Every structure is written in structure tokens, then in C-alpha cells.
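User: Please predict the structure of the protein below. I'd like the answer in C-alpha cell form so I can feed it into my own downstream comparison script.

Assistant: Understood. Taking the following sequence of 202 residues as input:
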Amino acid sequence: MLTVAIITVVVGAICFLSALIVKKNTPKVILGFIGITLLLYGGFSYGAIDPVPKIETYQTGNKKEVSYPVEKAQVTSPVDGDALSCRILTMGVYPEPMEKDIWVLLKPSDDKYYPQSDYTNASYKEKGNWQVVTRFGGDKGESYDLLVYEADSSASEFFNQTIAEWKSNDDYQGIEKEELPDGIKLVDQINVTTKYDCRGIF
């Protein structure tokens, strides 16, 4: 498939360049059209042009039943005791209306706190449900407390700035307990483990 794509790109380039050289209009248009078509097709096939953005993939843990009405933000997946992949989607529910943000923090064996975020930073909330991509970076079988917090705007800003700094420095050093912001409230907590070696994969 790769070889065919390369040949297609080369033939397309030859046709397109030939169209620039030919002086007669009809052959010029035909060669140009064929050249551009082959270049685009070969480019998509080869990967030089990527029509579909690369997306992060993740798995999910087990899911627990929810008792309604929901009185507080809580995690519904994974469940306490789950053994998880290195990257999962943590999901939960919250009572509506709710102005505060929801943050998931992981606390592994080093007793530091690691706020979890995707492209929206705080957990994504919609119609009583929330979710966030959660990444584990430890050894196989390592134990994690998965903590769910409600956070006010100043606490969310602290987590956002911390994550931005970690990404900029490529150094995810964790937050000490005494460094956690004042505007957070623990609303749910479970303990999970990793079923694979996740160290250094992110």
C-alpha cells in the first residue's frame, strides 16, 4: 500500500509538472487535473496529508449504578478496586445546576496529587454527567487514590496553571498536600490499580 501511494504521488507530480510545460490548453488542463488528483489521493494514502486528526484513545473501567436524584458529584466509572489500563475515561454524575468545576486528582504511592485534564482542562460537564481523560504513569499493580473534587474558579485556575507549567517543562512533579488550593472540596474517592506498566509512556 505504501509503495502504491508513493508511485501515485510521483506520477501525479510528473503529470502536474508536464501540465506546466505543455503549451496547448486542452492537454494542459487534463494533465493538471490528473496530476492534482493523483497528488491528493497519494498524499492521503501515504499520510503526507492527514484527513483525520490523531485522537487520544482510552478505555473505560467498570461502571456502577447511580441512585437518583443525584445529591453530589461522584464517580461512576471506574469503580473501587478496578485494575485499569494506562489511559482511561473517568466518568461521573453531578446534581444540576452546578456552578463549580469538577477535578479528578490521582494520588499514587508517592503521596503527591496529579490533576487530570483533557483539552478542556477541568472535567467536561453536560446535563448532569461529567468525564475526563485520566492517565496513569506508574508501575504495574501500583495503587492510586482517585479523588473527585468540586473546585471554585481560583482553584481551577491554580490547576490550569500547574498543568500548563508541567507541560512546558515536560516535568510532571506532582502537588504536595499542603500546596493544594483552598477552594476545593473532596466529594468522592475510590482506590484503583494499574494492570500494566505505565511508567514513561506519556
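That's the full C-alpha cell string. Helices lie at 2-21, 25-46, 153-169.
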